[in-house]
Amino acid sequence: MAIPKILLFYKFTPLPDPEAIRLWQRTLCEANNLRGRIIISEDGINATVGGDLDDVKRYVRTTREYAPFKDADIKWSDGLGDDFPRLSVKVRPELVTFTVPEEVKVTADGVQGGGVHLKPEQLHELVEARGEEVVFFDGRNAMEAEIGRMRGAVIPNTDTTRDFIDEIESGKYDDLKNRPVVTYCTGGIRCEVLSVLMKNRGFTDVYQMDGGIVRYGEKYGNDGLWDGSLYVFDKRMHIEFGQGAESLGSCVGCGERTPVFVNCANLACRKQYLRCEQCTEAGRVPTCGQCEGAPA
Ligand SMILES: [Zn+2]
Ligand SMILES: [Zn+2]
């Protein structure tokens, strides 16, 4: 592969025939040798695909020819080559599985009733104006935040996006209901929904990081309010915004800082945990240590 690229985009827009979009997108990806993961619903599309630069460009051009996707905010990054094991294009009830499809209303203008979108510089203006009052609320799975997060962020106890409803209804965060809360996630899609769910449950001053950590990191690198590495769902596993980023997570074997998640050697366990390259080479801590029936 000459120049491997990965692109990420989502678009909330009514799609009356998601199955037709699925067939079109699958054919388009196959024709351009792209692999990755695309979810389509009646509310829009969420895509992460990778391939050679020229192929990815062709894919983008054609995707934009469909009027509802014309102005999609497409985020590009460098891949390693063969960044995804396969192509998966599916229709699902929700673009992101919060398990509440009926709560999300989408028009041609996007999700209705969500938090105010803040571009990276607007986010800094909010922090300047409101200071310590501002709370960052991580909209990802807790594991992702182990290696990087917004400074001082609240990290909900979530294994998957399904856990958010219970978390925000638990009462744990009720003291945030009248404070400015800024939700953030990798590329912004999870916050589009999460911010609606929070507003519907009594959070009164909700914002969302527009374009997610990806856009924030492009703007401020390691000189803003982001610390560490960004977890990503492809072969790269994590990315950093320039030199000098230090991951926040520690190897379970030796305690060294590392951004490297590995899969538990117990195949019945799907857990990922942090293990540094030295410990991996030495064969230390082959399992997560938290699963049933794992060898000691
Ligand atoms: Zn180690
Ligand atoms: Zn395990």
Tell me what the structure shows.
By secondary structure, this protein is α/β, with parallel strands linked by helices. It folds into three domains: 4-91, 2-Layer Sandwich (Alpha-Beta Plaits), CATH 3.30.70; 101-231, Oxidized Rhodanese, domain 1 (3-Layer(aba) Sandwich); 249-295, no CATH class. It contains eight helices and 17 strands. The chain has helices at residues 18-31, 53-64, 120-130, 142-145, 164-169, 189-200, 212-220, 277-281; strands spanning 4-12, 35-41, 44-52, 75-78, 87-91, 106-107, 110-111, 116-118, 135-138, 148-150, 180-184, 205-209, 226-228, 230-231, 238-239, 261-263, 272-274. The radius of gyration is 20 Å and the shape is globular. The mean pLDDT is 95. One zinc ion binds next to loops.
Overall SS class: alpha/beta
Order of helices and strands: EHEEHEEEEEHEHEHEHEHEEEEEH
Question: How widely separated are the two ends?
Answer: 42 Å
Distinct ligand kinds: zinc ion
Which range best describes the helical content: under 10%, 10-25%, 25-40%, 40-55%, 55-70% or over 70%? Answer: 10-25%
- Counting DSSP E segments of at least 2 residues, the number of strands comes to 17
Rg value: 20 Å
